Amino acid sequence: MKFKDVEYNTEINKLYRYQIEKIVDLAINWCIMNLGQRKWCPNVFVEVVKEEVTNGAGWYLAYRHDPEIAINANGNLPAMDLVDTVIHEYAHYLQPNFQETYDQLSTEYEYYNNPLEVEARETARKYRKKCFTEIKKDFKYGRI
Q1: Alpha-carbon distance 116 to 110, whole Å?
Q2: I need a surface site. Which of 25, 26, 38, 40 has the fewest CB within 10 A?
Q3: Is 144 exposed, middle or buried (0-12, 13-18, 19+ CB in 10 A)?
Q4: What distance, in Å, lies between the first and last C-alpha atoms of the chain?
């Protein structure tokens, strides 16, 4: 499948790995340009993995100096959900003192009601269409 043919509901299992990685890369770059970066740690490492069993489509690892986002490309997620996952995990990267705060809130709230999860879901929901639309322009005009 060509990039220009990728739509919101295109299942990522129909894409080549390099295409998935390119979508993730473009989504991360969109996040950097539109959501900003942490001043104390401006770089985040992003990796596309294929895990058979996972607790989600992505996760954020809050290493002190080398934070990492992993995006799981296994399964039949629609391309829009892939972009949503990237934004969700990037939102965690932007949350100050993520690991300490997350662990503390996890004792008070269940995963779904954890305020940091709620905030990340809201950020992803707010920006996913805009991000995907801008990525789609790169597909359409052959910039990738």
Answers
A1: 11
A2: 40
A3: middle
A4: 14
**How far apart are alpha carbons 62 and 44 in whole angstroms?**
10
Q: Provide the strand spans (E) within the chain.
A: 45-49, 58-61, 68-72
Give per-residue pLDDT as tens, 16-40.
888 899 999 999 999 999 999 988 7
């539109």: which residue's tokens? Answer: 34
Instruction: Check: CB of residue 57 under 8 Å from CB of residue 46.
Output: no
Domains of the chain: 10-136 (1.10.10)
Tokens of residue 67, six digits: 């934070």
pTM over 0.85: yes
Residue 15, burial from CB neighbour count under 10 angstroms (0-12, 13-18, 19+) = buried
